DNA sequence: CCGCATCCGAGTTGATACTG
DNA sequence: CAGTATCAACTCGGATGCGG
């Protein structure tokens, strides 16, 4: 599938950069986190769970995740429209990564409430 | 001179966002990765290891990491100047997070040679 | 010389309104 | 409901300059 690669020629100097090229977007990890926890979510559900992200950004990040084969986008041709997002198999391999991040975040929040 | 100071007061909707508020910067995870692996690095050493980051961005990301108490900045008042960066104790708690990311990146790179 | 602050152009993100 | 369009605001990259 030779698709248009905007970031073609990108070579990674370390494995961290390779991962960030896939999930380094501003809201990608958060999107993945919610999809991991809830399995399948509609567009509007994600928007409610990530209120800081505007509709444009959310759409953009979702499309990029879809292009990278991390999530699935299923559109139901009904009225009113219905679009569901879910993890692909490759997306589920990120569970441990997101889980580590989530775990550290919990510890961080537990020890930084007396600011 | 507008400085970012409201990061600590940010309300997080999920633990992932809390973590990203600390290491979500464009090169922060990469910086931490190198510091985890090499222990202590000079400014110019980091620049060589992360060539995509400009000097300005590298300085900015390092200052933010320092403000968040994740890294230590030690300046030697000598000629020529010498600045060393190393992880703080809090910074070392991110080892497993960075390690997960690094691990996934290795797997990703190994299995993505399609064209 | 090394570390890093500053100015400006370019790309990215945000807020609001609009369409199918 | 899901997504697009437009413009304003912010961020990033590159070049330059400066202090030690």
UniProtKB/TrEMBL annotation, chains A, B:
InterPro entries: HTH_HxlR (IPR002577), WH-like_DNA-bd_sf (IPR036388), WH_DNA-bd_sf (IPR036390)
Signal peptide: none
Membrane-spanning intervals of the chain: none
Record flagged with keyword Transcription regulation: yes
Keyword field: DNA-binding, Transcription, Transcription regulation
Pfam families in the cross-refs: HxlR (PF01638)
Molecular function as annotated in GO: DNA binding
The keyword Transcription is annotated on this UniProt entry: yes
All residue ranges annotated as the HTH hxlR-type domain in the record: 14-113
Annotated PANTHER family: TRANSCRIPTIONAL REGULATOR, TRANSCRIPTIONAL REGULATOR, MARR FAMILY
Protein name listed in UniProt: Transcriptional regulator, HxlR family
Organism this protein belongs to: Eubacterium oxidoreducens
